[in-house]
Amino acid sequence: MSLTCKHLVIKSKEKTLLDVNFSFSRSFALIGESGSGKSLTLKALLGMLPHELEMLLDLETSYALERGKSIAMVPQNPFTALSPMTMIKNQFMCDASVAEAYLKSVELGVDVLTRFPSELSGGQLQRVIIAMALAIEPRLLLLDEPTTALDEESKQTILTLIQQLQERFGFDILFVTHDIETIESLCEDVAILKNGLIIERGKTKTILSQPKESYTKELLASGFKQRRFRT
User: Fold this and answer.
1) Which of 208, 207, 222 is nearest to 33 (CA)?
2) Which of 32, 119, 131, 186 might form a disulfide with 36, Cβ 3.0–4.6 angstroms?
């Protein structure tokens, strides 16, 4: 499978916010500071941009992208991604038997279905959200800093799990993150975003070991510090 974004341009009335192109066939990371255009890229692929923004999107893929069918997303903060007053079983958009199967695939018991989000840890919640995403059998999984809100142990668990699930189900990954360790372990290719433009791209190992642009070197030196949410 593959995805080629020949041209993605997003404009407001005042200026161009994003102007990028990229291509990948398995796993790809977009790296940059807040406001660089990472979230805009994800929202464009999901069809979730505000109406006041103008978009030009030219995609070529080996699969049809349709939100809720072939494309799914795992958000960065599992504590706000689910309805706190609704049982987990009522937040899956599929039959109970399907929900149970995907919960098992993320190493959770079916008892989770009768619990509320507040009864689960951050790592458990993120696995529930991954199961919900997998239940639509996506061809492309968008990951919006999915380990940012987790402690180190939970982060490593989720990263390993995502790798195993990709091998099992064969979906592509587009990963937005600040975490250098996440990039190294999961993404084959990477692009560095600055002010809505890709300034450097290539194989992850090459970019991380031999960055050419000063901005990339600064990001690497910063350690990709993560924002923290409640645990």
Assistant:
1) 222
2) 32
Domains within the chain, CATH numbers bracketed:
3-222 (3.40.50.300)
Average pLDDT over residues 154-161: 87
Question: What does the block give as tokens for 74?
Answer: 């795992």
What pTM value is reported for the model?
0.89
Residue of 49, 39, 103, 116 lying closest to 76 (CA atoms): 39
Token representation of residue 35: 């406001």
CA–CA distance, 83 with 8 (Å, rounded to integer): 32
Q: Which residues contact 200 (CB under 8 A, 6 or more apart)?
A: 191, 192, 207, 211, 212, 213, 215, 216
pLDDT digits (tens, 9 = 90+) for 90-117: 999 899 999 999 999 999 999 999 999 9
Closest CA to 150 of 47, 226, 90: 226
Contacts of 163 (CB under 8 A, 6+ apart): 185, 186
